[in-house]
């Protein structure tokens, strides 16, 4: 969950456009292709908003496909600060995933390498790969992001480091992690009879690496596995006697899922933006096994005690993942101890109140600093 400025007492006007329903038609796809590069309607709507609402600050989330970076020049002309919450890696990778052929890829980290999205057909669609590459190239050449945004608010330190490596000024980069509503520890007792299962929470899709965990399940019929999440259309899922596919769960069902699990595995092939499942599991005193890449090592680091509040495996290495799963399954006391550390790490670093306070302080400083630089009329 991201910060809610209204709950902090700020007056907020929102410009939101959706691509829902348009991806299924040729017209919708063509409209998204061109609007992502330059959206005339997005500019008109933003100009109309500025005519009735005079903000002290503009907060950007996602501009694609129907708003486009073209609106950033309008925002800058308002004379107020512009900040952006960076939810993924789309500013420096056309697909936003840093992923190609199932492996992390950072080719586009170097300025001007958007063409590799076309060359390697990273979207598995020549049309989409071309569109994604073009809109990133235009944004880079016009310096829409670099010149018009005052601060980039990253979700993780890893994300901040990648933006800096791509040429974004370090003094414009801040980190504000996501959060979830805290669950009282008493509501999540650990299963003391050593039953339970290995849990997976997330979309059943290739980039999430669910198939790696399926392979571990295939090798170990003596261990129970449960997968919570929707199956992406066209994704084949092996049927195994020790695996239960739970589908998409509602809030209470998901809470019960975490409580019933001995631990959670996040086997992602991609770096991930901010893996909320990690926080959810931690809030229920369940530790995670995650890949040693992206933001996972930092998010699982128990800073004060200089320990990991979970286990890491070598990315894409199903043998190493198997070792970690089997070892932790065979040592429920270790799983319980790591779960306690995970919950402590969550309370110390990712509580809603702390993150909202950090946001509030930041917004005040940005707006106050801008007003000091506005010449008297």
Describe this entry's structure for a reader.
The protein is 40% helix and 13% strand. With 377 residues, the chain is an alpha/beta fold. A hairpin with a 2-residue loop joins strand 3 (99-100) and strand 4 (103-104). The relative contact order is 0.11.
Provide the descriptors you would attach to this structure in a database record:
single chain; 377 residues; alpha/beta; Rossmann fold; 2 domains; six-stranded parallel sheet; four-stranded parallel sheet; 14 helices; 14 strands; 40% helix; globular
Largest sheet geometry: 6 strands, parallel
And the CATH topology of the largest domain?
Answer: Rossmann fold
Helix content: 40-55%
Name of the top-level CATH class of the largest domain: Alpha Beta
User: Which of globular, elongated, flat, extended, rod-shaped describes the shape?
Assistant: globular
What amount of the residues lies in strands?
5-15%
- What would you report as the Rg, rounded to the nearest angstrom? 22 Å
Helix-and-strand structural type: alpha/beta
| CATH architecture term of the largest domain | 3-Layer(aba) Sandwich
Q: How many beta-strand elements? A: 14
């Amino acid at each position: 969950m991201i910060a809610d400025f209204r709950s902090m007492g700020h007056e907020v006007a929102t410009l939101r456009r959706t691509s829902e329903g348009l991806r299924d038609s040729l017209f919708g796809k063509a409209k998204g292709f061109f609007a992502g590069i330059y959206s005339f309607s997005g500019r008109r709507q933003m100009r109309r908003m500025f005519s009735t609402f005079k903000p002290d600050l503009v907060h950007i989330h996602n501009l694609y496909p129907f708003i486009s970076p073209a609106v950033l020049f309008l925002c800058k002309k308002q004379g107020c600060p512009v900040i952006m919450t960076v939810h993924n890696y789309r500013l420096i990778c056309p697909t936003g995933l840093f992923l190609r052929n199932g492996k992390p890829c950072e080719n586009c980290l170097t300025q001007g390498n958007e063409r590799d999205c076309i060359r390697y057909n990273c979207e598995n669609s020549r049309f989409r790969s071309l569109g994604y590459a073009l809109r990133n190239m235009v944004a880079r050449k016009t310096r829409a992001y670099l010149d018009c945004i005052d601060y980039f608010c990253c979700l993780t330190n890893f994300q901040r480091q990648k933006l800096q490596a791509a040429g974004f000024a370090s003094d414009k980069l801040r980190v504000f992690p996501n959060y979830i509503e805290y669950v009282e520890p008493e509501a999540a007792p650990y299963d003391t009879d050593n039953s339970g299962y290995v849990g997976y929470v997330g979309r059943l899709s290739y980039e999430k690496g669910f198939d790696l965990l399926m392979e571990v399940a295939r090798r170990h019929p003596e261990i129970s596995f449960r997968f919570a999440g929707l199956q992406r259309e066209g994704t084949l899922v092996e049927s195994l006697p020790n695996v239960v596919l739970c589908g998409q769960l509602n809030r209470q069902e998901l809470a019960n899922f975490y409580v019933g699990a001995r631990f959670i595995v996040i086997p992602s092939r991609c770096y991930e933006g901010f893996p909320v499942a990690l926080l959810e599991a931690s809030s229920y005193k369940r530790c995670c096994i995650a890949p040693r890449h992206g933001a996972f090592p930092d998010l699982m680091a128990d800073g004060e005690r200089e320990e990991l509040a979970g286990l890491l495996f070598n990315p894409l290495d199903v043998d190493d993942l198997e070792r970690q799963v089997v070892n932790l399954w065979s040592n429920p006391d270790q799983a319980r101890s790591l779960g306690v550390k995970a919950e402590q790490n969550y309370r110390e670093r990712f509580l809603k109140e702390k993150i909202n306070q950090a946001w509030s302080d930041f917004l005040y400083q940005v707006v106050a600093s801008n007003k000091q630089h506005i010449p008297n009329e």
